[in-house]
Design a protein that fits this description.
Helix content is about 45%, strand content about 15%.
Length: about 80
């Protein structure tokens, strides 16, 4: 997919993208991006809303980028 097509795919369904221009510039470098999502494991519950960020992370992964899920282990020990 071209960088422009990737941008359209990744922003579909998003209410707001902080910097589409910056994301497009990075996609135009034609190298895999490293996309990170940090999760705090101390929350008492998990709900359907959490799947939104996980699905977006998966979309980056399917486009050939590196998806990294970070689980805050230090916050869980406090």
């Amino acid at each position: 997919m071209s960088p422009e097509q990737q941008l359209l795919h990744l922003t579909a369904g998003a209410a707001k993208v902080l910097s589409e221009k910056e994301l497009l510039e990075k996609l135009k470098l034609l190298r895999p991006l490293r996309v990170k999502l940090g999760v705090d494991p101390t929350a008492p519950d998990i709900h359907f809303g959490h799947t939104v960020a996980l699905e977006k992370l998966r979309q980056f992964q399917l486009l050939g980028h590196q998806a990294v899920l970070i689980i805050g282990d230090f916050t869980a020990t406090i």
